[in-house]
Task: inverse folding
């Protein structure tokens, strides 16, 4: 029963997220509304971490596997991309690494600054 | 073989699990950084489909059921975030500025490369939301008039690159602070990168989860302005 109860709670957030997505005319998916709502419910002690802990751990642990079906769909995207595929991959690699370095370095720099001030 | 597998719902799910398992085993056995279980699983799955002449649609008719778990799993990222909320509050300025830097870097670097490679507006806006989570990114590309199918592919490739490169990039560029690592990974490579951040540590995972939400929303807000830079 424990797991059923935990999964039910998580699915309630997914469902409420879907309802919000339906009524709010923004390109924000159900998962984002759900994560914000669950966070707020945890923070304001409406539900406890204990009531979803094991099931949420399990879902997070197996999350990488959930991306395989969409990623294998790259075969179908090949048809529309092949003419420019080298350029597209180049742009994708460079921008991804640039963002990673810029965001990481900026965050680290500001954290160090803050520590110095103290 | 299409006909056989069309009648087997569990084929797609099983193929995804088994290929990921092989990837995880290979990584455990040979400790090379580039042996990434997710990447190996994707390559093996595609190879299997191509060699066996199985249509992607046949595979997906079963495999889609794993994808259904993505929304609940993403929602669960609120748990690590909640558990590290004190740390986040203490560093909120650095965290928010870091994510904003990531979002702006993404759009500016796409803009610069779009100019260099002579992208038209539709191609340019296809790439603008590339660093954010698929569901938001597709919505943005659609609204701005991009090629949605290409956006979806580019977002996935971005995530996989982030997942593979995260540890190396953090090491080479001396990003050592766990908060900074999490922000770097989440804002560059959304949920697929975040799965790597969660493996690296609780703080990394929590900050990466936060970055998915904040960078997604910031991109929705800013992409309209950026889309006008190339006519």
Result:
């Amino acid at each position: 029963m424990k797991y059923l109860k935990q999964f039910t709670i998580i699915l309630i957030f997914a469902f409420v997220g879907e309802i919000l997505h339906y009524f709010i005319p923004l390109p924000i998916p159900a998962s984002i509304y759900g994560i914000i709502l669950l966070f707020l419910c945890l923070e304001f002690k409406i539900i406890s971490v204990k009531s979803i802990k094991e099931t949420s751990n399990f879902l997070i642990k197996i999350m990488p596997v959930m991306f395989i079906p969409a990623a294998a769909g790259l075969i179908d995207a090949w048809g529309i991309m092949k003419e420019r595929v080298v350029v597209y991959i180049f742009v994708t690699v460079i921008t991804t690494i640039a963002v990673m370095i810029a965001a990481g370095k900026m965050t680290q720099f500001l954290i160090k600054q803050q520590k110095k001030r103290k | 073989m299409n006909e056989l597998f069309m009648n087997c719902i569990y084929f797609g799910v099983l193929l995804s699990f088994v290929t990921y398992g092989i990837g995880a085993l290979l990584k455990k056995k040979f400790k090379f950084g580039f042996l990434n279980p997710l990447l190996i699983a994707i390559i093996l799955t595609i190879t299997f489909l191509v060699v066996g002449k199985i249509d992607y649609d046949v595979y997906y008719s079963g495999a889609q059921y794993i994808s259904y778990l993505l929304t609940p799993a993403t929602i669960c990222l609120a748990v690590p975030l909640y558990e590290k909320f004190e740390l986040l509050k203490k560093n909120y300025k650095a965290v928010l500025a870091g994510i904003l830097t990531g979002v702006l870097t993404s759009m500016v670097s796409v803009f610069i490369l779009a100019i260099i490679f002579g992208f038209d507006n539709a191609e340019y806006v296809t790439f603008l939301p590339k660093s954010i989570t698929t569901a938001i990114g597709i919505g943005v590309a659609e609204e701005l008039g991009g090629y949605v199918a290409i956006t979806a592919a580019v977002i996935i490739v971005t995530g996989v690159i982030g997942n593979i490169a995260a540890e190396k990039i953090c090491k080479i560029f001396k990003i050592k602070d766990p908060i900074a690592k999490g922000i770097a990974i989440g804002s560059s490579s959304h949920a697929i990168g975040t799965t790597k951040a969660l493996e690296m540590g609780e703080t990394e995972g929590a900050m990466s989860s936060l970055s998915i939400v904040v960078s997604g929303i910031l991109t929705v807000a800013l992409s309209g302005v950026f889309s006008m830079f190339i006519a």
About this structure: Residues 92 and 105 of chain A are 20 Å apart (CA to CA).
